[in-house]
Amino acid sequence: MKLSATVTVLGLLPLALAESILVTFPSGTPDSVVDQAKQSVKDAGGKITHNYTLLKGFAADTKADSVQQLSTQFAAYNPTVEKDMTVTIQ
């Protein structure tokens, strides 16, 4: 029983370490670059949670260390990578 609980906790650990992020690119960025960025997130063990149509970008759940890699890998296209959070206006 104890081993089962340990395995369950370890199985959930990657989810706990994941960050929800938004990735957007300038409007002139080729679609192929956005697709490569999505694939990069998936290759790092992340999950695309939403594809944007009005913006060139997507939302994803990924590990914190892959966020910096994404920014560096696509720096030539000036992506904006930010933590997904609730914003309120008063």
How do the helices and strands line up, and which of them pair or pack?
Elements: H1 2-17, E1 18-25, H2 31-43, E2 47-52, E3 56-63, H3 64-73, E4 80-83
Antiparallel strand pairs: 1-3, 1-4, 2-3
Question: Which short descriptors sum up this protein?
Answer:
single chain; 90 residues; alpha+beta; Alpha-Beta Plaits; 4-stranded antiparallel beta sheet; 4 strands; 43% helix; globular
Task: Give an overview of the whole structure.
Belongs to the protease inhibitor I9 family. The structure is a single chain. 43% of the residues lie in helices and 29% in strands. It contains 3 helices and 4 strands; from the N terminus they run αβαββαβ. A 4-stranded antiparallel sheet has the order 2-3-1-4. A hairpin with a 3-residue loop joins strand 2 and strand 3 (56-63). The longest helix is centred in the first third of the chain and has 16 residues, at 2-17. The chain is globular and about 35 Å long. Residues 5-10 have low confidence and may be disordered.
Question: What is the gist of this entry?
Answer:
This protein is of the alpha+beta class and about 90 residues long. The protein has 3 helices and 4 strands, in the order αβαββαβ.
